[in-house]
Write a structure and sequence with these properties.
The chain is an alpha+beta fold and about 90 residues long. Helix content is about 20%, strand content about 25%. It is globular and about 40 Å long.
């Protein structure tokens, strides 16, 4: 199973400057582990010490925010696109 993962610019140093990479997994948690295997050090930037996505990062599966689905247990399928989007704030 192959899923396209869109990587934000600040994290591309872990993906050899690739903006998108192909990974696999049956859910977001497995996908994050696959990303770590392919790009050592990236999981620490994506997840807190409990393995949950960091507050300032949003994960989307085919444009659906995983916070409104099943979080890291959100299922992914072959051909899906997962976007990792840093939160933007300011005033």
């Amino acid at each position: 199973m192959s899923v396209k993962v869109l990587i934000p610019t600040p994290l591309q140093k872990f993906t050899q400057n690739q903006a998108a990479i192909e990974c696999s997994g049956s859910n977001i948690a497995e996908l994050i582990d696959a990303l770590e295997a392919a790009c050592p050090g990236i999981k620490e930037r994506l997840c807190d010490e409990k393995g949950q996505p960091r507050r300032f990062l949003n994960f989307y599966v085919n444009s659906e925010d995983i916070r409104f689905l099943e979080g890291t247990k959100t299922a992914i399928n072959d051909g899906d696109e997962v976007s990792i989007v840093p939160a933007v704030a300011g005033g």
